[in-house]
Amino acid sequence: MPPSEAAISVAGLRKAFGSKVVLDGIDLHVPAGSIFSLLGSNGAGKTTTVQILSTLVPFDGGTLTIAGHDVARQPNAVRATIGVTGQFSAVDNMLTGEENLRLMGDLCHLSRRQGKQRARELLEQFDLVEAAGKLPAFYSGGMRRRLDLAMGLVGRPRILFLDEPTTGLDPRSRRTMWETIQRLVSEEGVTLFLTTQYLEEADELADRIAVLDQGKLVAEGTADELKRLVAGGHIRLQFADRYWLDQAYAALGQGVRDDEALALKVPTDGSVRALKSVLDDLEVRSVEVAAVTVHTPDLDDVFLTLTSRPAPQKETVR
User: Fold this and answer.
1) Neighbours of 6 (CB within 10 A)
2) Mean of the per-residue pLDDT values for the chain?
3) Domain span at residue 114?
4) 42: burial class by Cβ within 10 Å (0-12, 13-18, 19+)?
5) Claim to verify: residue 245 and residue 164 sit in the same structural domain
6) Do 222 and 260 belong together in one domain?
């Protein structure tokens, strides 16, 4: 599928369980070969969205197209093009790692030879060769999630749904999983639809991010575009002495001074245009600046501003 085409197209998606509306008119457009992240707190409707798009749960209204196939009318065609890795592992604890992969090969209607070859390829790709003959009970959490992801790739899907794939992993394992996900897109051209409650995860991985709150999309865009939606961005100008700080403040006519630190904080939307405008104004007055840093709001600020509820879990990766 050419990158310009939509791998996933959703218009007016609605879903209710009884009187509770879970999804209320969702519109999504995911280009082929990209990573799209759906961000939201627990209970926001992320998993329900994935279940509907992967044909596991029926929907009440809207139009859904996956890889050019209508989800309602052509579910089998949709299933033939997708892979799904859910929140909870699909690994069979009674089978070895290789046996799990070969079982998936059988389910994907691969021949015995093809299934064996595909299992070997994925064991090598996901650095599981040494653990191939071991039961998953002896795997670490990160190894188990890598095996789970590999199982979703046995049938070579064009579109892969990852529903909170790093939940419960330690920071090092989460970073390893991020690198694996990025390689799938850059080297194999897979389209990834990722749900997560980790703000750093969406910021690190996604080409575009949608914020889901109470069944509605409250924002969508790149991480930088979303950060520019909220106030708090500024340019911090550092000066060698008080004289240049005074000159800069006079030239710009705005900003918050820090006389002790010899710094001036100028409000901005964080764009290159805004930075250039400030520096041009200083250059006209021949003001010497020792250092410049641009500060923009993070996804924490975006989530809190747009949803007025606690932000999803945040964990610093070391």
Assistant:
1) 17
2) 88
3) 6-227
4) exposed
5) no
6) no
